Amino acid sequence: MDALLPALPWIKALHVLSVIAWMAGMLYLPRLFVYHADAEKGSVQSETFKVMERRLYRGITTPAMVATWVFGLLMLGIDHAIWWGVWPWVKAVMVLALSAVHGFYGRLRRDFANDRNVRPSKFFRMINEIPFVLAIVIVIMVIVKPF
């Protein structure tokens, strides 16, 4: 992996861009769920939300998550010193949590796609905040490195 050391700045840049795309999807998808929950099942509006949610989740959010993981793991393979301290472990737990939320959003999307959603729009308004709270902790760990 030492041969990739000169590419580390590019890998970091691609990692950050992937995170931005992943977070955009993670913040927008629950907003779509809010409006979809209020749409009548089988309506044109509901069917439009299904298409939007599928394209966002499968076309942007999931590939961005995969790219985030790939570039993040590449950085770890190149620079082993990243794991010194407590902050990288806290960050890793938060990234795992964000990945779990991603999977949960996928399940919610499938419920909407199959007209099986039973949750009110208020639920989706509340879960919309989870990815951003996780992102706050992740950014503080990476930039401030408090421990």
Structure overview:
The protein is mainly α and 147 residues long. It has one domain. Helix content is 78%, strand content 0%. The chain has five helices and no strands. The protein has helices at 8-38, 44-78, 87-113, 121-127, 130-143. It is elongated and about 55 Å long. The protein starts with 7 loop residues before the first helix and ends with a helix. The mean pLDDT is 95.
Summarize the structure.
The protein is mainly α and 147 residues long. The chain has five helices and no strands.
Runs in which pLDDT lies below 50 for 5 or more consecutive residues are none
Total domains: 1
Q: Which structural class should the secondary elements be placed in?
A: mainly alpha
Mean of pLDDT: 95
Alpha carbon gyration radius:
18 Å
Helix share, percent: over 70%
Strand tally is 0
What proportion strand?
Answer: under 5%
Q: Mind summarizing the main beta sheet? A: none
Shape: elongated
Number of separate helices: 5
SSE order in H/E notation? HHHHH
Topology, please?
Layout: H1 8-38, H2 44-78, H3 87-113, H4 121-127, H5 130-143
Defining traits:
147 residues, mainly alpha, 5 helices, 78% helix, 0% strand, elongated
